[in-house]
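input
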Amino acid sequence: MMDPPIEKLLARVDSKFTLVTLAAKRGRQINSYFSQLGEGLGTIVPPQVTSVSRKPLSIALEEIAAEKITYERIDPEAAEEATE
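output
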């Protein structure tokens, strides 16, 4: 049994693929944050929710469920025009 439930997570995004990509990217950011804590750099955003989990991916999924992490879909036509 997963917490937060997959149904709640899928309600926050438009597809399973978006959910996986968003969670993986945020999980890597959280992992980098914990790695650089002792160095005092402070360039990466810390976790946005309090969690009992110590795993970066679980924290990322909790952030998505709490609507702390969002995404913006880029229009491919607009991106193509910007590069020309």
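quick obs: The chain is about 50% helix and 0% strand.
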